[in-house]
Amino acid sequence: MPAVTIRNLSDETHRALRVRAAHHGRSTEAEIRDIIEAAVRPAERVKLGSLLAAIGRDAELSNSDVEALQRNRDETPAEPMTFE
Fold first, then answer.
1. DSSP at 22
2. Which of 2, 15, 74, 78 is spaced 20 to 30 Å from 22 by Cα?
3. What is the rounded distance in angstroms from the CA atom of residue 7 to the CA atom of residue 4?
4. Half-sphere exposure of 15 (CA within 13 A, CB side)
């Protein structure tokens, strides 16, 4: 698993992290992981599958509509892009 080193953290910030970790009953390292996780992967983010399902509902697509789209889908493998 990747590791991250944080340099030049002020004493006040480190102390605040330790207090916050103690308040949540976990180590400072676990607290930092939780903070980073919440910052980069917020719970309210839109997930692609949920978004596509909502679009289908809004468009009032039926199962037969989806099956027709799948039957007409181009099955040709995609060609990788070249930049020559």
1. H
2. 2
3. 10
4. 3
Q: Which two structure tokens, joined as six digits, stand for 8?
A: 């030049």
Give, in order, the Cα–Cα distances in Å from 64 to each of 32, 49, 50, 51. Answer: 49, 19, 20, 20
As a whole number of angstroms, the distance between CA 13 and CA 5 comes to 15
pLDDT digits (tens, 9 = 90+) for 17-69: 999 999 999 999 999 999 999 888 877 777 888 888 889 889 998 889 888 88
Q: How many CB atoms lie within 10 A of CB 34?
A: 14
pLDDT of 67-83, one tens digit each? 888 888 888 888 899 99
10: left (phi over 0), alpha (psi -120 to 50) or beta: beta
| Spatial CA neighbour of 69 closest among 51, 55, 48, 50 | 55
Q: Using CA of residue 70, residue 74, residue 78, residue 82, what is the dihedral sign?
A: negative
